[in-house]
Amino acid sequence: MKIVIQLVLWVVIGFLGYLVFNSINGPVKFNKIKQARYAKAIENLKDIRNAELAHKTVVGKFQKDPAKLIAFVDTAKFTLTQRRDSSFIRYNKVLRIDEPKDTVVVDTLGYASVRDSLFGGTDRYKNMMKVPVEGTDAMYELNAGYLNKNGLNIAVFEAKVSKDVLLHDQDRDLVLQEKEVRSADGVNGPYLSVGSMEEVNTTGNWPKTYGANDQ
Question: What is the pTM of this model?
Fold first, then answer.
């Protein structure tokens, strides 16, 4: 009987030890996976932002259709210009004299491929809308439109992905805790995102530990 009791106690001790180890190791493993996936997701968000900013420069507005944004990168070109000061003579009919006038002349120097300028000739932009996490075929959510500020319609866009998608195969309690994060060194809220449909900005919501969020 004594031996049986000892064996049971060892089993209980081993089980409790496992629970303690798992309570410590679980969050550590979760954070490593989270940080690796966030880093990959943020790289795509940066590519999407660069493509959107290029679209705004060339077309004058942001694009909410992912397929059209990719097609834009594939075919569009930046216009290369040069601004220079100049002057000319204008006849003043009232004073009956020639008057010198200053002006700025914009010369078109040529054109540059958006694809080559932003992505160095690579085709990674073709997959920038796909969430880079194994086990899911989810896409980033993309929206664009206009925000009225003081009577002016200002172009805005937003790209985002839910933490539920990025951490779809992780412990649900830890995922719920992550979605409630509010800290200077964390990604606050339930999404990783760049841009906004509610305010005028093109920044990302990730901390500097993942790289600059405004370029």
Answer: 0.78
